[in-house]
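Colleagues,

For the teaching module next term, I've prepared a clean inverse folding example: a structure given as tokens, and then the sequence designed for it. I'd like students to try predicting residues themselves before seeing the answer, so please don't circulate the second half yet.
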């Protein structure tokens, strides 16, 4: 069985709203599909996935096992092309989970630097490489990303198909981590872009919540290939770090009420 997850990272709650999961299973000449909105809780190895509502299901009768196998291959390629993360078969998507009662919600806030990083033109590259080679490259890609994350004492929040959201206590370490990832994945023939923003977040039921996450995603969307772009909030936290920036001016960020001044980290 093949399982896929796509995190909705463009809302203030990175673990909710547009997150969606698929499962694809072949039984003889029939392909069983299951899909729907999901809720994601926890961070890193503690991540758990639950159906937000009962999932939709469909049985596709292909006539022969050969046709069914071809259908599954196309369905998997389509999910990868739509920036889904392929999940290990051991991952269980649980039943709909009830929301915690309001008195069980922690309202403690903390400050962190959020880093978004993803692969530029990933769909085009995946189509050119094919599923098997792309899966190998993605394995090495995430290994490189997590190696740089450990070096910089960053904390992985979630993956987003071909990208990652992580957070850091120190803004300078976040910037150096993003630059390290950019340099490390070049050996794989990949280009990445990264966006960083500093602000408050909350942990509610194991989920990372806050407008800072939303702004960080929008900053990343403004970056070009091989660029590490930061908001003025991040730049202001590293005045004596020796890190140099190029001012890219004021920008309107979709869904964000005020404009932000953005900077690109100099190579």
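(Answer key — instructors only)
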């Amino acid at each position: 069985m093949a399982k896929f997850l796509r995190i909705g990272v463009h809302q203030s709650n990175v673990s909710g709203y547009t997150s969606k999961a698929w499962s694809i299973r072949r039984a003889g000449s029939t392909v069983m599909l299951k899909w729907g909105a999901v809720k994601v809780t926890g961070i890193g190895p503690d991540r758990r996935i639950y159906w937000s509502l009962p999932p939709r299901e469909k049985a596709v009768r292909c006539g022969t096992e050969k046709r069914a196998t071809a259908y599954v291959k196309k369905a998997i390629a389509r999910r990868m092309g739509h920036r889904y993360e392929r999940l290990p078969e051991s991952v269980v998507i649980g039943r709909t989970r009830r929301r915690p009662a309001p008195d069980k919600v922690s309202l403690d806030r903390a400050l962190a630097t959020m880093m978004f990083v993803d692969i530029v033109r990933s769909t085009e590259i995946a189509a050119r490489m094919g599923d098997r080679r792309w899966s190998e490259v993605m394995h090495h890609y995430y290994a490189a990303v997590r190696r740089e994350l450990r070096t910089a004492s960053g904390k992985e929040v979630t993956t987003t198909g071909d990208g990652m959201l992580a957070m850091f206590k120190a803004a300078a370490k976040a910037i150096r981590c993003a630059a390290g990832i950019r340099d490390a994945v070049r050996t794989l023939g990949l280009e990445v872009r990264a966006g960083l923003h500093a602000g408050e977040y909350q942990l509610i039921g194991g989920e990372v919540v806050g407008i800072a996450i939303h702004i960080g995603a929008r900053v990343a969307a403004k970056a070009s290939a091989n660029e590490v772009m930061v908001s003025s909030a991040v730049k202001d936290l590293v005045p004596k770090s020796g890190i140099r920036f190029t001012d890219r001016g004021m920008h309107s960020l979709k869904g964000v009420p005020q404009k932000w001044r953005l900077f690109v980290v100099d190579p």
